[in-house]
Amino acid sequence: LLMLDEPSLGIMPIYVNKILKIVKKLRDEEAMSILIVEQEIKKALKIADRAYVIQNGHIILEGKGEELLNSSLIKESYLGI
């Protein structure tokens, strides 16, 4: 189990993408379980098999990363779309 707390915090975007690429590779090639706490929700959901959105200490959404990325609540609340 690899646990990452805000891996993008304070890091240049180009390096964040490299980090997430490595995380995805570990997940896919090494069958590693990975827990990521991340405020950059769009980036996190793109690589997540399963995701939970927590607000005020409560799970408000859960599902597959791609499904949540397309959720109207996520688009309105977190992505400003």
UniProtKB/TrEMBL annotation:
<comment type="similarity">
    <text>Belongs to the ABC transporter superfamily.</text>
</comment>
<dbReference type="InterPro" id="IPR027417">
    <property type="entry name" value="P-loop_NTPase"/>
</dbReference>
<dbReference type="InterPro" id="IPR052156">
    <property type="entry name" value="BCAA_Transport_ATP-bd_LivF"/>
</dbReference>
<keyword id="KW-0029">Amino-acid transport</keyword>
<keyword id="KW-0813">Transport</keyword>
<dbReference type="GO" id="GO:0015807">
    <property type="term" value="P:L-amino acid transport"/>
</dbReference>
<protein>
    <recommendedName>
        <fullName>Branched-chain amino acid ATP-binding cassette transporter C-terminal domain-containing protein</fullName>
    </recommendedName>
</protein>
<dbReference type="GO" id="GO:0015658">
    <property type="term" value="F:branched-chain amino acid transmembrane transporter activity"/>
</dbReference>
